[in-house]
Amino acid sequence: MRQPLGIRSKQTRDAKKLSEQLSDGRLESIHIPSEEEELIRLSTQLRQTIVSDRKRVTCRIKAKLFQFGYNDLVSDTKANETWIKKISSHPDFPTALKRELDYWCKQWLQLTEDNKEQNKEIARQSRKHDHCSQQEAIYKSAPGLGNISGKALSRELGDLQRFSR
């Protein structure tokens, strides 16, 4: 859906005004990340993409099983390697369905391996950069934030000191 012309012109004008103020240094509270910060963020962003893709593949597997009436194989439990291997080794699927499910199961297993590798890369990155591990400790101290969330927030938000103004 397109926006009316008046709204678009206001957005363009506002964007131009903001960019001028930013380039003049008049917007002090806006933090522009450095190239190093952007590179550090890439690892958690890639991990998020992998997790989203794996979830999408899980939904496709379940949809195919529902489509052909294999409701007993689709449980309310989360997808895991045991469930994927059970589907891969199921003997009663028609050939075409078996071929497609095997494809999606291989994709799921590959994405799981990629996720494990990305987790290792994020951990290496934390050990390499002291500021990352310090920020992660601060974020993980908040109730409800675990290891992965703490790492992602530390990379996306950075140092909390800049919010104290």
From TrEMBL:
<protein>
    <recommendedName>
        <fullName>Transposase</fullName>
    </recommendedName>
</protein>
<dbReference type="InterPro" id="IPR047650">
    <property type="entry name" value="Transpos_IS110"/>
</dbReference>
<feature type="compositionally biased region" description="Basic and acidic residues">
    <location>
        <begin position="11"/>
        <end position="20"/>
    </location>
</feature>
<feature type="region of interest" description="Disordered">
    <location>
        <begin position="1"/>
        <end position="20"/>
    </location>
</feature>
